[in-house]
Write a structure and sequence with these properties.
The structure holds two protein chains of two kinds.
Chain A: H1 22-28, H2 57-61, H3 66-78, H4 82-95, H5 99-116, E1 125-126, E2 151-152, E3 159-163, H6 165-168, E4 177-183, H7 198-215, E5 220-227, E6 235-241, E7 250-256, H8 276-280, H9 295-305, H10 307-318, H11 322-337, H12 349-361, H13 371-384, E8 392-393, H14 405-411, E9 416-417, H15 431-449, H16 455-461, H17 466-469, E10 472-476, H18 481-488, H19 492-497, H20 502-518, E11 522-527, E12 535-536, E13 550-556, E14 565-570, H21 575-583, E15 588-591, E16 597-602, H22 608-611, H23 614-627, E17 634-636, H24 655-673, E18 682-687, E19 711-713, E20 718-720, E21 734-740, H25 750-772, E22 775-778, E23 783-787, E24 790-797, H26 801-806, E25 807-809, E26 815-817, H27 821-846, H28 850-863, H29 872-884, H30 895-908, E27 916-917, H31 926-938, E28 948-949, H32 966-988, E29 1009-1013, H33 1055-1067, E30 1071-1075, E31 1082-1087, E32 1095-1096, E33 1105-1107, E34 1115-1118, H34 1120-1130, E35 1135-1140
Parallel strand pairs in A: 4-7, 8-9, 21-24, 27-28
Antiparallel strand pairs in A: 1-2, 3-4, 5-6, 5-12, 6-7, 10-13, 10-17, 11-13, 14-16, 15-16, 18-21, 19-20, 22-23, 23-24, 25-26, 29-31, 29-35, 30-31, 32-34, 33-34
Helix pairs in contact in A: 4-11, 10-12, 11-12, 11-13, 13-15, 15-16, 18-20, 20-23, 27-29, 28-29, 28-30, 30-32
Chain B: H1 6-9, E1 17-22, E2 31-37, E3 53-59, H2 65-71, E4 78-84, E5 111-117, H3 123-131, E6 135-136, H4 137-140, H5 147-158, H6 162-190, H7 215-232, H8 239-269
Parallel strand pairs in B: 1-6
Antiparallel strand pairs in B: 1-2, 2-3, 3-5, 4-5
Pfam families (chain B): RRM_1 (PF00076), RRP7 (PF12923)
Family (chain B): Belongs to the RRP7 family.
Protein name (chain B): Ribosomal RNA processing 7 homolog A
Amino acid sequence: MKRRRSQTLAQGKTDVEDEVDSEELEEQDDPDPSGKTRTPSAAPAADDIIRPVKLSKSELYKPPTNEELNRLKETEYLFHSNLLRMQIEELLVEVKLKEKRRKHIDAFLHEINSVLSQIPETPERDLVDQSWLRKSVKIPFLQVPYDVKGKFHFLPPSSIKVVGSYLLGTSIKPEINVDVALTMPREILQEKDNLNQRYLRKRALYLAHAAGNLAKNQLFGSVKFTYLNSNHLKPILLLRPGGKDEKLVTVRLHVCPPPGVFKPSRLSPNKNNVRTAWYTEQSSDREGVSEPPTPHYNNTILSDLALEHHLQHLSSCATDFPGMKDGIAILKVWLRQRQLDKGYGCFNGFMVSMLVAYLLSKNKINKVMSGYQILRNTLHFLATTDLSANGITMSKVTDQALPSLADFQQAFDVVFVDPLGLVNLCADVTAAKYRQIQFEAQESLKILDDTTTDGFHLLLMVPKPFIRTFDHVFHLTHLVQLQDACKKMKLLNELMDRGGDYVSTVLPFLLSVLARGLDQRISLLSHTLPQRPEWDIGQAPAKHKDVGLLSVGFLLAPGFCNSVLEKGPAADATEAADFRTFWGVKSELRRFQDGSICEAVVWPGETLHEKRKIPELIIKHLLKLHVGVSESSVSYTGNLTDCVLMKDKNAGTGEEQMVSIVQSYDDLSRKLWNLDDLPLTVTSVQGTHPSLRYTEVFPPVPVKPDWNFYKDEKSKNCLVPSLDKPCPAYIPPMKVICHMEGSGKWPQNKDAIKRVKAAFQIRLAELLKSQHNLLCKPSATYTDVYKDGFVFRVQVAYHRELQYMKETVTPEGMLKSQESEESLQLEKETLHLPYMTSTLHGLQQQHPAFGATSRLAKRWISAQLLGDSFSEECMDLLVAYLFVHPAPFTAPSSPQVGFLRFLYLVATFDWKNSPLVVNLNGELKGADVTEIQNDFVSSRTRLPVMFIATPKDGKDSVWTKNRPSAQILQRLILLSAESLRILEKQLVEPLGNHDLKTVFRPPLDFYDVLIHLNPKQIPRHREAIDQPAKSFVRGFLTTKAEMKNLYFPVVDYDPVQLYLKELKEAYEDFALFFYDSYGGEVIGVLWKPSSFEKQPFKATNVQGRLMDMKSDRSLTVPNVEAMLEDFQFLGEGLVQKVETNTERWNI
Amino acid sequence: MAAPSEESTLVAPAGYIAISIQFSEERPTHHCLYAKEHKVREKVEQSRPLNRTLFVINIPPYCTEKCLSQIFASCGTVVSVELQDKPGPSKKCNKEVRSKYFDHNMPKGFKVGYIVFKKDVGPKELKHLKLQKPYVMSENLQTVKTGIHKWIEDYEESLTDTVDLQNEIDNFMKEYDKKLAEEDEKAKLEEGIPDEDGWVKVTRKGRRPGLARTEAVNLRVMEREKKKRAQKELLNFYAWQHHDSKREHLAELRKKFEEDKQKIALMRAQRKFRPY
């Protein structure tokens, strides 16, 4: 028998991050510029596992050298800890530019310089006459309106200078940009060029002509246009070297005016430089009316003027300040991970550099500080200062001619004025974006202060994509509509100021409408930055509507986000009219319980599923009313994954059922407490079923059995499934542990305790029947109680049973406690599970999204057929981790974003080298966590592959002890990475016609054998991902039907699970079985490669094997044909067919 | 997948004979039971007399005791069939009573069996089996129950008869109480009376109870001793103690440093420092 499979389960790609591009490989040979020694002694062990360090005594106790003491001291002062210092050093090595590359770049820059000065001059023409321009170049400017006065001719630049981060040494990989400023000769510019975009158009023409000439040159691999920070008034030219150096560097050519050409006072934020008459192309009939100020337009021109001065200022700050480079590089990484550094209105590296310079001038940073301290101080400043309320200025001169801070404040949302006192560096930053920056800084500081977490990793290594950061996100798809919105909201002046870019014009107003509408429901509102792509110089620049997507995201406030009522002012108050206009037809008068009559808006909210949709309804309503955006172009991605949790299209997502289960359980526990005539009293009642911690994927629904559907066992008052009918719907028994009081009467022997417990079970059944008229079904180990349509499985426990179970007597006659399989099981059931259930129940009260997130995660893992390989408790804890330790995010408030983060956690967590510590209730202190980590490192090889520690269980990882296996975990990691990629792509691209259930459909070609099941015998058929249009009647009456409780319904009867159990018992050695326990129709079988090797005959090891007739020696091979027949035979009535996927293996 | 030919299935390892069994005529495949005479070097169990016992391995999961006794009926009258997970001593002897409510260790999956015949069986009788065609189970037996049939039956069986269970519990507890009473009686008689070496047994129940002999108690006593000793010791009394504590601190820092270095090296190797 031979296996032809190329890749087995075990050989998944072990390291996804292994993909290394050639350029990076090349770098590795570089000598380390920082001169740090990479000692071979610290090299990792071959199998990538951290081992405890063993140092010899002489090494540990040798006298310290001066150098060593200095370093230790420095670390103490300048960094948090040794580890952090080393981590930051490593990070800087990764992102900073290598010396060798720098030389290449310098050479390239020299060549550019010579090429630029050779560009031919052109004769003078009118600005509107662009026929002289090469045909291969289109002017990178949207010339609306086209007509403008002025003349233009090209002259070689009067100076060519490198500016920006490259000179400062703060540019970071992977995108190395070198900014080169070309200064236009004074002769090109005329008086009044500051008016009506004349300067800006000349600038664009200048660039276009240069581009046309450079494009021919062999030196460049690509010559493209783009906009600086996506500001469409400011095109820049991108030059990249040709050949294999393509990715080495991008040179960005900026064009700026000669110094002093414009009078700064004319460009103050309160001055007008774009005439309404020109912009609207109407003769000025509004004579005498003062023109509106154009602050953004003015700022655009001013920032060109100040370009050089800013560089000088920064480089003077950076002298004898070695930490500044590091600090800025780290801050840039921080911004980039949060997607704050690109697009229109970004907070980019330049602004951060200026901020550091500002802090230096205010003595909040001094020149001996390390990069880490700069990061910390800058974050602290960002977190505590509100630039949108109190702007800051770097200017030290108090000149009356300069505009005042108040002027800036009036014109801009966020104010940060440059050293000249002219330019607002944060002109394009919206207030909402600034709030987000502030929020991120606050969160980051909290992370840094927390000693139990790895702050470095969370702050700088974890990316925070928009879709994973915010609870709800929606995209605006047809941005053309915003053009009409400008008219609707009367934003003509603003539109003129922004040169016709209606997207960025409307944005601040749109956000303020949303902020008012959502009010208390959200804690943070932000948006993505509109980004303009690069384009070929031969193409015309893209229109404003092609900016792509505008996405808005918000963090929900857990307490308020789902409230159905929006209470307004009293009907006779003055604000009432305002309220009515804001909410439109949705507003109505309501009388409240306290007798007041108020304006109010009421949203539909029968079930939690509906309530979760309220923010969506509000947004769609308000956008339509105030901005004129149609509902169809708002693509809302807040609750799309809810659909996999719905059993029935009309019913909700099951939260309501769980609430009624908990109520029924509470009632039962009260009844148990108060039972009369019980020989001992009940000390505690603890539920352990997932429904009682709100994490059951499909919570049981109340049932009333239809007697005709079953055989009845009259003597025992129980129903039994009937052979000729479809399998009855599955009723899960919900386990409830009932502790009995301790007493001297309890026997001291484990077998006797079992009997006494059984007697209690019988007694409980009798008493519940006689005192509360509940239908009960006792057995030796539990009593099933049928109550309110649910079935509870009450299990009596005695707290000292565990002790007796563990007792063994050593040969010396000493009593010793020793764990056995049985005792561990009992410990799990009566100690760990009740504790976990109650703790997670508490977590659900704090974070309402916990339950649904956990259910989504479980549903997904089961849909991927891996449900059996992970215990439910393990999944619950993984999800609890997202809520207890959300950093660098905030605790999710919507199940969908929780699910995305769950996938990310599973895919990226370093299971090999770290324990996942879930600090439930914050019971673990810093020292405890360190202890857990140390224990983990010292005994890694003996511990389960997936190690989850909780306060009650720090050393064992009870829930992952036996499963998953390493191979299954590896597969889960691959699956979750892939699912995350697909799902996020679907959520980010609303225009594609996606099916969100894609990630819930497992690939079946992966399996060797598929066992197809007969839906008639699948009791949970309706829970399948793709719900069957029709299924079978499963023996239950409608909930309203009248009936008497005479017979106990069929409990815990799932033929598929029984079948799987038999398969596993018999064929565990040969194959793995995979099944989606929520209504799957297929069981996937995977042969174990090892069992297919020929093995010598042994009496203990012959199960299912056959003597190999081909070999002379007595070797055995698996009897595969017979096994395949057995699959069919064991599942008689359940199995439809056994399909073999022989392409993957043969005999 | 061609059906294996007749001879192939009948290849048996040395000392065994192969018996192929088939579920029904239509199904071409079969499992192979391997049987040999039961032989043990150590003490012979009463329930498995030598010469009369046949040892069978590779019994498929759906094959019950009843099936086996029918299969081997052709060799002689079968007295008993015992199925186990693994070859080894009989489990029935260890416990006097097997309770159907409290012991759930039924053999699962592929099993081994011990078949006891009324008369001696030699190689001659076994040859009968060897020459036969594959044994077809569904023909010769009342239907073997599998699948839905079996599970429904199992469910029915799992319903507990309360009265029966209560009786069993009462009996067990009666026995248990009796046993305890006897032990108490015995202990009372022995109390205070020295044995032949002159030692007196001290129990927790006597007039002067001793410490319980458990591991936990031992540990506790040791802990207490240690604490007492530690209290007597003075810290920071001698100059060397002060030096030592400083040295220890430095050593601790160094160790931590080495550990961190190792961690960093590992992360670097895994390219964990590339932020994006």
